[in-house]
Amino acid sequence: MFSEDLRIVSDSSITVCGHHVVPMMQAAQFTASDAVPLVDYVGDAIIFSGMQDDDIPGIGQYDDFHTIDWQRDIARDRMRHRYIVKKRQDSILDLIKGAHDAWSGWVCVLLVGVCTGVVAGVIDIGASWMTDLKFGICRQAFWFNREQCCWSSNETTFDHGNCSQWLTWPQMFGESREGPGAYIISYIFYIGWALVFAALSASLVRMFAPYACGSGIPEIKTILSGFIIRGYLGKWTLIIKVVGLILSVSSGLSLGKEGPMVHIASCLGNILSYLFPKYGRNEAKKREILSAAAAAGVSVAFGAPIGGVLFSLEEVSYYFPLKTLWRSFFCALIAAFILRSINPFGNEHSVLFFVEYNKPWIFFELIPFVGLGIIGGCIATIFIKANIYWCRYRKYSKLGQYPVTEVLVVTLLTAVIAYPNPYTRMNTSQLIYLLFNQCGISNSDPLCDYNRNFTDVNSAIEKAAAEAGVYRAIWQLVLALAVKLVMTVFTFGIKVPCGLFIPSLALGAIAGRIVGIGVEQLAYHYPKIWLFSGECSTGDDCITPGLYAMVGAAAVLGGVTRMTVSLVVIMFELTGGVRYIVPLMAAAMASKWVGDALGRQGIYDAHIALNGYPFLDSKDEFQHTSLAADVMQPKRNETLAVITQDSMTVDDVETLLKETEHNGYPVVVSKESQYLVGFVLRRDLNLAIANARRTIEGITGQSVVVFAGAGNPPTGPPPCLPLNRILDMAPITVTDQTPMETVVDMFRKLGLRQTLVTHNGRLLGVITKKDVLRHVKQMDNEDPNSVLFN
Amino acid sequence: MFSEDLRIVSDSSITVCGHHVVPMMQAAQFTASDAVPLVDYVGDAIIFSGMQDDDIPGIGQYDDFHTIDWQRDIARDRMRHRYIVKKRQDSILDLIKGAHDAWSGWVCVLLVGVCTGVVAGVIDIGASWMTDLKFGICRQAFWFNREQCCWSSNETTFDHGNCSQWLTWPQMFGESREGPGAYIISYIFYIGWALVFAALSASLVRMFAPYACGSGIPEIKTILSGFIIRGYLGKWTLIIKVVGLILSVSSGLSLGKEGPMVHIASCLGNILSYLFPKYGRNEAKKREILSAAAAAGVSVAFGAPIGGVLFSLEEVSYYFPLKTLWRSFFCALIAAFILRSINPFGNEHSVLFFVEYNKPWIFFELIPFVGLGIIGGCIATIFIKANIYWCRYRKYSKLGQYPVTEVLVVTLLTAVIAYPNPYTRMNTSQLIYLLFNQCGISNSDPLCDYNRNFTDVNSAIEKAAAEAGVYRAIWQLVLALAVKLVMTVFTFGIKVPCGLFIPSLALGAIAGRIVGIGVEQLAYHYPKIWLFSGECSTGDDCITPGLYAMVGAAAVLGGVTRMTVSLVVIMFELTGGVRYIVPLMAAAMASKWVGDALGRQGIYDAHIALNGYPFLDSKDEFQHTSLAADVMQPKRNETLAVITQDSMTVDDVETLLKETEHNGYPVVVSKESQYLVGFVLRRDLNLAIANARRTIEGITGQSVVVFAGAGNPPTGPPPCLPLNRILDMAPITVTDQTPMETVVDMFRKLGLRQTLVTHNGRLLGVITKKDVLRHVKQMDNEDPNSVLFN
């Protein structure tokens, strides 16, 4: 029995109801050197959940859709840690347990990294096979994708990536590869498979795990900021998200697998954390693992471990101590290492879109790069506004009741429109890679149809006029840009797993490539303009359109997500282009500023606001002048629900619990004086009274509930009920004159759930996180009632 | 006059002494829409420093060696911001002022970046010229270093980097280049120049800027955590540090220029921030610029912008909002870009120690890499313990009185010992580069004396036995390791600018190279061992000793500084070796764990503790169980110095100010009840009373000082003195039962200077940052009196 280990350190123990007790916070203070045993309050040692076997179920846990109390959870963890450190000296088993506890953080992130890498490999392999299935099948082994199939056939020359082993669908039906008949058969198979995949994906999500839809990043941001959504990171969500993601990516919809990867990694983090009670049973500690998992998710999505850590730090995480930084890095690195060992794409380069340009960028090019940033910011703002408008319409109209039908309609439209245009037909990753590339000797795409002869592999590429192929490609790219923008607006938010990193990158890469070709042809036709007179006056090609595509991609992604440092780092890990940090940063900055000027929120924050999650953004500064007194509950003419420290009966307390719905109640000296003593949670109060009725004899509705106080409460029958063990004697308080900016700061930095407002020591009211969020909304002229949860 | 713009927003204004007034914190609440002018308290609108011309000098500033109050400074900045936003509508000039204010953060970091890049270029050029001056001089132009001299001479073959234009000192005296006479002349010149440079450096530091010595990183960490050291970042420190750094680096002492670069960049940040009142006049905001400057310093030191930002985040900074992350990145990038444009070394590669290895690392090599990590951790711990022992001896003995003599003795010893060994004679950066390199066809150093023939440039390097040259080199390296370790112990802490990044890297690189050669020869002689049976069974060389040098360098640096993520990122930006993140991380982790196990602190934290700076580390967790009541002042049997809200006279207050030395006083309702009203700073109280005596007629020693309260204070002559404007009505309070872990957390996260301790609303005591620091020391069984400052 645990309470035998308790000893008093300081002399501030209190006698309540004839018992000798320690106040709640002080119970943490047992050391081995003190000698007053405290065995006489059996039954209410309930805060030590996680350490003893006989704890009341549910204590220390939170209800669904509630905010967690970081301070309380962290305090619980430190207490548990001290208990283990102390026990360690008792026996070898305890020593091993202690060592296990000390290492469990590292072991847990190691497991998360390994599992994330493996799952990412499975998704990559599955998605690439099924994407190719839309076009044909391998004669030799149907489970090979086109690339593997052609490798195994040992042929030396491939025709557009096709080989004799790879059967396209027209070939299966005896048609030739080319010709109108073949085209129609291919078209039909393409649409057919897309619809099958999409229908499967949407049905799975609808039937088994509704939380598996979307990218998951807005919800994960909210969860990491200290909110409970049960099942959002559970095993069913994980399984369905993995399967659904493979299907939805393969269906050719305008979506990416990068955002959902973060969700999948977080699910793995959540599930694996249950192996380690230190994390599984403590919501605040669990979020350290989830932050690391989010980093691993981005790391495997882009092969960018450092970018992943910075993404987790900048975009997703809320509470990010430096220990977490180091563990996140470890986790991200392990995940990337495992994925690279699996090598699902079978290529040599360790980066996804490896680029190598012959020419460095020239200083004057910063002007078009900033221009691209502005264009990217505009595209991103249009996308966000249109997407939010459509999602709101879906939410409040009948459309929301037919998710599978919606997915099928969007898939059909996407497939029908996408197939005829080669740039929308191909895999989006391939498109980005093609656009990032520079036109070399081996590139036969129409995009590289320049009037030039390659005489020597190593000689510089000469400047050349664009020919018909390039102009045709530009028109197709403009069409592709419009189609992708419109389809992505309708796609992001449908009920299948879908991310928008890849679509955003593609939009930007298309815009960038078009601008790049424009600047290049300008430099060719007007080499005398002062801008081009320096570096571009020689015959060599001085402008690389591929670099513009890369910069444009960063600009749009930056505008959509409002990432900054992590975006630049991801881009340079993604492409291996260390030399291009300055252009990338110029474009990302321009895009972010344009985005901030045109619309305040990034896509994730906009979706958080749309769903009414209680997310207190740590990036926005609170600029208003209100005081704590303006925000606190109750407002004027209402009375505050309080409990007195030693004068209310069990019946009084139960009536209060029935009549009000607060999550907790301040405890005061007396109703008249209102001097603050502490704070007690509704949940604890309910559990403690129920427990006392069961275990302590003679407790009736007339028993006086005693929380604290050195006075002499009634000792006669019925016996009084000591509840000092559930009283938090160290609630965070502010005065009524405290500016709200300070209060908001305290909520953010200390992770508060509520704070008590006092004036000259007297309790005036309570401010909860919900009150703060509503106040922020109100001050920003938004609807305060859009904050939905506690 | 500013106070005419004040308007009351809420209705909680108070009537004091017959005047209509607003409490301090609420004064922030002026908006344009309200209409009650408040012109009747002229003279005490003193908190609006930074906005008006007639503010009392010194208000809002801090004394030297004092801790800043982050909450107060941030609140002041928000108030100033709101004032500017409001004024913006008044005139075009104000609009421009507003725009200037909004942009000033970016402009300031831009300037800091540019200046840091330029200064770094000057230092690099100066140091490389003067380092070569120890060996000879350029015939053509004495201001060329050896490399520039030989370039300008257009010779095609160089003999060990020498050319006919470059005159070594023996040649100047008519001797040949080789031979015993030449050796002696070279030796004497080497020692002579070294002593001249060191003497100059030490004298300059001693005479003009004592703060310019050392690396400066411990002090900058302390300053960034919210401490004032006047002059530490001033212009004289800057100038002397730059000149002294060039001299001390050139003198051949075992020190680097990387740490001082951070100090130099921070000086630039501090000086340039005075161009922008937003930052120059607000200590909390200024630290945002200083964080960015620190990032720029590391960025130019290593050519590693991302590593610089992470170093600033992980190691140096304390308060690091995300906006600062983005600005730091910008600043670091600009600085690196400028330095690269100056191109002081004239080489092509954008990284300092560019490496390219033919072979990837093999999985089993993780074992020696982790071994290197452990060796690195041990070397680092020996270094830290010895260095701290010696610095403490210097501090408390007569040695400290002869700094210049000490520098000369250390320089003489270093020069005498270093010259005979080629690996200690050469520039430390060159040594590191040599050790990192793999033995290719062009490398003629004894380290590459293997029994192999290069038949083809492109063929793989074959495995080969080491010959005599390698074994001789190993002995020289072992000696060099011992000499460098001992000399660095005595060097770090002498009174010249000196950093220890480069010496640490060199120590590790030597150890790593030796281990690497050992493993390589093991693989050559015993290729059948199971470890080597896989990748090493072919004839090709499978072990790259240069990689071991790189890993060893990371291990020692990691052990010395306890950097983690930033270390790995710096190493990979430094070498361009993206493929080697996993080995680097394995070694860095092993080294950090060994270091943490053997001695708790990194070198910077150890120096902070040695100097007694009030630095509250945000990385250490507070593990003890004490309560706020155990830490607060006054202890039992002492009384707390308080001021009552409306019953003390000016004489009473002045007596209290004379008799006590606290930095601030709590204001209570009355001495009897002790209910807390607010907090007033000593400095403000002094200034306000002095000001009132000057400006308000009839104020005498008998005037009652009124801070707050709705009561009726004596109105008769002498008139009472309203001081509500300097009263902070929103002090942060905790209850006496609050665990110290929560209190420490609040001090860290909210940047508090003090907190008030209450029980049931009554004031019990005060906890200052110094109390917290002393308590932490006491709990860790260290001397609490080693905390020196407030």
TrEMBL record, chains A, B:
SUPFAM superfamilies: CBS-domain pair (SSF54631), Clc chloride channel (SSF81340). It is found in: Endosome membrane; Membrane. Residues 632-695, 723-784 form the CBS domain. GO terms for molecular function: voltage-gated chloride channel activity. SMART domains: CBS. PANTHER family: CHLORIDE CHANNEL PROTEIN. This is Chloride channel protein. It comes from Galleria mellonella.
